[in-house]
Design brief:
With 97 residues, this protein is mostly helical.
Length: 97
């Protein structure tokens, strides 16, 4: 793995862990509109996430639970992106032969 990728991952992890506890807890987007217009009670969730409401379950301190969720989110996105890039680069190499 290239050094710049590792440095980028570390910086992203540090930022996510340190800054995610300060994220707004107010609803945004469609959830805010649903509250303002009074139809939020009719909303149904099709998928229940592993980390609902960006708080890692089982941790009593909400700021620490949010920091863990932020760090895990960075790792999951990095892992998926890295695997996709490996598949794409192998596919491109096989086309060149």
């Amino acid at each position: 793995m290239k050094k710049i990728i590792v440095i980028g991952l570390i910086v992203s992890l540090v930022l996510a862990i340190l800054l995610s506890p300060f994220a707004s807890s107010s609803p945004d987007g469609l959830e805010k509109v649903g509250e303002d217009k009074g139809f939020i009670e009719k909303a149904h969730s099709f998928l229940t996430g592993l980390i609902p409401d960006y708080v890692f379950p089982g941790v009593s301190d909400e700021k620490i639970a949010t920091a863990i969720a932020g760090g895990l989110g960075v790792l999951v996105v990095f892992g998926i992106t890295y695997l996709l890039m490996l598949v794409i680069s192998k596919r491109d190499k096989s086309k060149q032969v």
